[in-house]
Write a structure and sequence with these properties.
5 helices; alpha/beta
Length: about 190
């Protein structure tokens, strides 16, 4: 329980410091009167540690003890893990939001947010030489009825989950960084809209 409380406090601190950033292009005032925002995720073309995802997957599979474990890891990476990353983003974003909510089931919402995952850095645990997990994202807003016309977009590079480097398990590190990304985005949305 103490670890979870510490995790929540750390997320709040990060979200507060990160959310002070301003949009470089456009604004989010078009969302002032919107209570629901449709949400889609885009992992197409994602890089891992700045390299093509396929290269990362191949090298990472080689670290598993057996071919069966390697295939299981790949299946998790492309399926269940990705689903958990998205769920963490949504949960922590909605926990932060005051009068709005985001969901993948709001297909009738006026606006859709596309969370384009650009780069993932899984980090690693190596005692004092550990490295935090990071994610770089481009947030793109569209009118739901016209997903070809971009309303506004902004990027957020190297979102960091502090103390994720204390986690031995890469899956937990990445869940933490997607939670931080969601919480930070929710905080920004609160500051940028009514």
């Amino acid at each position: 329980m103490k670890l979870r409380s510490l995790f929540v406090v750390l997320l709040a601190l990060v979200a507060t410091s990160v959310s002070a950033q301003k949009l470089k292009k456009g604004s989010l005032t078009f969302l002032d009167n919107e209570s629901k925002i449709n949400l889609v995720f885009d992992f197409n073309g994602v890089t891992v540690d700045g390299k093509a995802e396929e290269i990362f997957v191949k090298k990472r599979m080689e670290k598993e003890k057996t071919p069966k474990e390697a295939e299981e890891w790949k299946k998790n990476w492309e399926g269940e893990w990705r689903k958990q990353f998205m769920n963490n983003f949504i949960k922590y974003c909605n926990d932060e939001l005051k009068n709005k909510s985001v969901s993948q089931s709001y297909s009738n919402a006026k606006y859709t947010l596309c969370v384009k995952i650009v780069n993932i850095v899984p980090g690693y645990f190596a005692g004092p030489y550990s490295k935090d997990a990071l994610v770089s994202v481009v947030y793109k807003f569209y009118k739901t009825e016209d997903m070809n016309t971009l309303v506004t977009q902004f990027s957020w590079d190297k979102i960091c989950s502090p103390f994720s480097d204390y986690q031995v398990d890469e899956f937990i590190r990445l869940k933490m960084v997607f939670a931080t990304a969601g919480k930070s985005f929710g905080a920004l949305l609160n500051l940028s809209t009514k």
